[in-house]
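Wed. Picked up where I left off yesterday with tRNA (guanine-N(7)-)-methyltransferase. The coffee machine is broken again, so keeping this brief.
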Amino acid sequence: MEPTPLVRPRSFVVRGRKTEAQTRAIDELWPSFGLEFTGEPLDLDAAFGRRAPRVVEIGFGNGENLLTLAERHPDRDFVGIEVHGAGIGRVLGAMRDRGLTNIRIVRHDAVEVFETGLRPGSIDEILIFFPDPWPKARHHRRRLVQPEFGRLLVRAIAPTGVLRLATDWEPYAEHMIEVLDAEPGLANAAGADRFVPRPEDRPVTKFERRGERLGHAIFDLEYRPRT
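Structure written out below (tokens, as returned):
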């Protein structure tokens, strides 16, 4: 009998229902702004019709950060990776309302996208803001930031690129810094075992506001490829 292959734990659980407006936005706008993941590298030059600095946000949620940054920086191209249809529908509708054309969306597991969907050294900035902390000890293996994923981030990021992360869950912040400080391809911009001040250009999202209401500290991390 063939051995059963090990199944990698997912860092997400698909939940939530789309509104009618979100469903319409997906039906109408996905052909223009959605990128279908096939397991092959995405042709981002063709998708955006230009070559510009590329930013990837992993797990953009309701899209507050993604939309704000795309509006502020029309000279950059943004790829949002998300699995939740409600957030995707909201972003597509907001793009139409705001006249934004510099966002493309991939609805797929971010780990698999980074495994085969992004060319080496092709991404100038990677954003991971307020990912699910999976606080229970038995669920820690589901956390997105793991050594294996750190290596995929290093592979995708440009030599002059930057990786930015934020969380309001202190144990996850400590886990992130432990994992990423140990990754030989990354250098902590603040120095080993240290966090950076909150970047002024990082939009405040509902996740951050909720964390602050709960009395949580906010932890920002920044890494650059080690040369």
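Quick read: The CA atoms of residues 17 and 100 lie 25 Å apart.
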